[in-house]
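Homework-ish question, so no full write-ups if that breaks the rules, but can someone show me the predicted structure for this set?
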Amino acid sequence: MGEMDEAGSGSRVKLLRSQRIYLPLLCLIGLLVAPVLAAGNPFLMHVLIMSLFYAFLGTAWNIVGGYVGLVSLGHAAYFGLGAYISTLAFLNFGVTPWLGILLAAVGATFFGFAIGVPSIRFWGGGAFFCVVSIAFAETLRLVFLGLKIGGGSAGTLLPIVPSFVNFEFESKLPYYFIILGFLVVELLVLQRISVSKMGHYLVAIREDEVKAEAVGIDTRKYKLLAIGLSAFFTAIGGVFYAQYVLYFDPYTVFGLNLSIFIVLVATVGGRGTILGPVLGSFIITPISLYSNVILGGSTFQGLSQVVYGVLLILIVLTVPAGLMALVTKALGSVTPSEKDFHKGEN
Amino acid sequence: MALVRVQDLTKNFGGICAVDHCSFEIKEKMIYGLIGPNGSGKTTVFNLITGLYKEDGGDIFFKGERINRLKTHQRVRMGLGRTFQLVRIFQGLKVINNLLVPPPRKGEKETETRKRALNLLKFVNLMRLKDEYARNLSFGQQRLLELAIVLMQNPDLVLMDEPTSGVNPAIIQEIINHIKQLRDGGKTFIIVEHNIPAIMEICDRIIVLDHGTKIAEGTGNEIAADKKVIEAYLGGGAPIK
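A: Not a homework solution, just the prediction itself:
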């Protein structure tokens, strides 16, 4: 009996390993093929790009909100900083947005530490961190509006000069592959972290911060690292947005709506799971965009938001742990926080 | 040299003085009991020693070094471990993974850490539950798991806050046996406990607190006969048994 259990458990582990390798691989192949299917349909292409884009932002938020459990409702702050730093460097000093990505990411990381250090050092994070994150994003919005940075409320318009160096393209296809590339890199980084000691510590902090400190984990340091990394990636998302849309203003890039949408993507998909935000984004971004197009006419003003809201409520009520929990259950896998400890199986 | 020296330790919460110029010493390889009526400041002293609270006055020395300014995790890395009054384990993780959370020893390989974790699970008789979620364990088993997590840190001093509270007699005896075994292996314990028979059975010395200050210290028999202690517990009634 024991041997049979061992054998069963062994084949299950093999199955899990193969699932963990082949499933993301299948998803990636699907995403590489998707533009072919969307050829000739610019709106579908836009939906795909935005789904990848919000998956990227949701994954960045997930580092701090999902893995550490620090709920930030002000991630638009890092996003907006990313968009402005890169764009202003481009417009004023001719710095290519490719280099701007680095400037933006480093700048936002610095601001992430600036908000993280006091809120964690003096108040330990928690609800205070959530409130400070909103205040920080709102303050930035008001500062950019009040000081008319980048044109203030009139917004910032990027000149249309398509070239690789300018990170501007005539078709949507390059944008699609760029954001797909960004997402893959981000997911690989997160995967490496989740199986590292740092990943274990982040999960432990989320489970019980006092206990984590009491077993010798420098909880402040790891929370700050998570905030910094999350801000880093979110700012890259901001640069991509600026280059894709070519126009933005403080309302759009620092707005609470954006912060909440990022949180929704991760929460609906599954906080603390690597692929949760990707799944979440590919569910709610199309719902949001299509409901706007189909129901957004003047006859039933606001109906699109009602339908979108109802769908979200249904998802959250039916699967409070996130849609990824359904997938993991269907595959008979271990829970997200657990798999982080199974290095060989992840 | 004392392993721990607490000197004039003071902690106020608003107008309440929880620990009032408390001083005592803990010698190596001994089991100390820290007892006192409810509200006498026992857990607060633990929280001050481990750095979860910041003291308002006084000094704490560990291995001869003043540790007042060190953070909790730094004190833990110096060799200080603790359990909590209400069990604190990583409920959402499996039993074995609870033991893999503490940072490994310097230079220790992953396989070695895992082997040590499995040995500790054997030690606390939780081996058969290693793949169970911690939240599914009984309260007594969770206490044992908490002890195993502390031991993973390989501490020189273990502070245990009411380790037998809410635990059935069989597991109480198991916990007592483990503590004695670990003491014999060179570890030092300070135990806060309301279970006086258990304290009398395992402690080499007992420190009694009342109103945040030390009122007595001695062996079990000395404490049981101490008038100040009897008065603090019973208002001058029957002796402690």
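Now go work out the reasoning yourself. Hint: Residues 1-8, 342-346 of chain A have pLDDT under 50 and may be disordered.
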